[in-house]
Amino acid sequence: MSTTRRWLKLTVAYDGTNYAGWQFQPSEPTVQATLAEAWCSITGEQPTLTASGRTDAGVHALGQVVGLVTNSELPAERLLQGLNAKLPDDVMVRAVETAPDGFHATHDALKKLYRYQIHNSRVRPLFDRRYRWHVPHELDVASMQAAAVHLVGRHDFACFETTGSERSSTVRTLTKVEVGQGGAAGEQIDIEVEGDGFLYNMVRGIVGTLVEVGRGAREPNWVAEVLAARDRRVAGPNAPAHGLVLVWVEYAE
Amino acid sequence: MSTTRRWLKLTVAYDGTNYAGWQFQPSEPTVQATLAEAWCSITGEQPTLTASGRTDAGVHALGQVVGLVTNSELPAERLLQGLNAKLPDDVMVRAVETAPDGFHATHDALKKLYRYQIHNSRVRPLFDRRYRWHVPHELDVASMQAAAVHLVGRHDFACFETTGSERSSTVRTLTKVEVGQGGAAGEQIDIEVEGDGFLYNMVRGIVGTLVEVGRGAREPNWVAEVLAARDRRVAGPNAPAHGLVLVWVEYAE
Is the CB of A131 less than 8 angstroms away from the CB of B129? Predict the structure, then answer.
């Protein structure tokens, strides 16, 4: 008698507005608990779900990756449809795939892309209000782009780490920090940050720092000083959670 | 002693999700009551607010126009800022302007544009779920465009009027019925309908009818028969409210 133990990789999207983040917490709604409950109702299994990383309360995902081990023999397509039928309308599974034996969504992640969404207008956003940070003072995108250049590459990003985490190294490599502008009146400013790993609150610290430059409080070159200082107190404030979206996570084939 | 009685024109945007429509109803949240309350808290006046037209429960607006008469001497800019400070985050005043004496937002409207937003994908929408109708079966946009052509012009639109209204004539002129496609995978189908007036549920009836054609249940020419029948039972079902947006209303200068 053999069981069909399989490793699976789920690609999950969620609107984080109504969740206390990814990670399970007693008596708080979390994405992990919501997904585990849906899984259980389809397969009868209490799964151990491992995400590429925790997302904080209010942070959204288009392509969070979640790994699990299952004995269920349901085909991937059935699992996908079943989960989406059970999940609430603010959580969605976009793909269910077989993963290599021993797959670990956190440790095996090679690269991630985060997008931070700003609504830059005197007038507050309406339909986007859950997904964009409202910055009412005018931002200079060219300055923000000039500042962002300093962040690309392998650096010690200690200046952007909110204290309380226990990582041994604060060195990470960012392969892209791009500031783009869109919307009918240029009011949408999106900051995309791609890297091999992220410290706690790192993207929100980067965005808060770039906005200091964008509103003219600092020169673009200030960002080089911030990096060199390796001190969280030197950088700008963290941008709020609700503008942040985890777009995708890359793994080795 | 003279009072400064003025007519004002407010351009108002709202997310209709949490409202029982524009029109005041006892013990139900409505956009009209919400806006009246904000006005009262700024000026002390209990205003009579007249909109270009009622929007149903769940229908959104980017540019609803609301008229009122006021004795307040506050400048337009102060009213705009004051109202937006008082309004909840799902209602917003985009402009406050002086209107001609006797301005009536309903009767003086010359033209309106509605946009109906569809999410056409097997997978349900996530971030757009409050603003797009999820149509899971594939829609043929070219057929819908061919069908839409029949609707442009001056016609008796009785076939698209939900019963219960008391209008004397069901003849209206549509100057545009456009079916567009967007989104990363073409999943966003937007139907724009511009006209000099609309019967009750007319746009939702048009959209439900075009979707019958798009999914292949009917040929594009069927729409000409529907129009000619002048019978609501012949047309397709009404599309749901939450995909509908009142984009703008035009008045004579």
Answer: no
**B60 vs A84: CB contact, 8 Å cut-off?**
no
> What is the pTM assigned to this prediction?
0.90
The answer to whether A147 and A213 have CB atoms below 8 angstroms apart is: yes
| The dihedral formed by the CA atoms of B147, B149, B152 and B157, expressed in degrees to the nearest 10 | -20
* Rg value, chain A, Cα: 19
Q: Which fold has domain B111-250?
A: Alpha-Beta Plaits (3.30.70)
Q: Which of B117, B123, B93, B129 is nearest to B8 (CA)?
A: B93
Is B1 a residue whose pLDDT tops 60? no
Helix (H) or strand (E) holding B202: helix B202-214
Architecture of domain A6-98: 2-Layer Sandwich (3.30)
- Tell me what the pLDDT averaged over chain B comes to: 95
Tell me if B67 sits within 8 A of B252, measured CB to CB: no
Shortest Cα distance from B124 to chain A (angstroms)?
Answer: 8
Domain boundaries, chain B: 6-98, 111-250
- Give strand pairing partners of B51: B66
> Which of B14, B84, B124 is facing A92, going by the closest CB pair?
B124
User: Which chain B residues are closer than 8 Å to A80 by Cβ?
Assistant: none
Q: Are strands B244-251 and B60-70 parallel, antiparallel or unpaired?
A: parallel
ipTM value for the complex:
0.83
Backbone angles phi, psi at B196, to 5 degrees: -90, -5
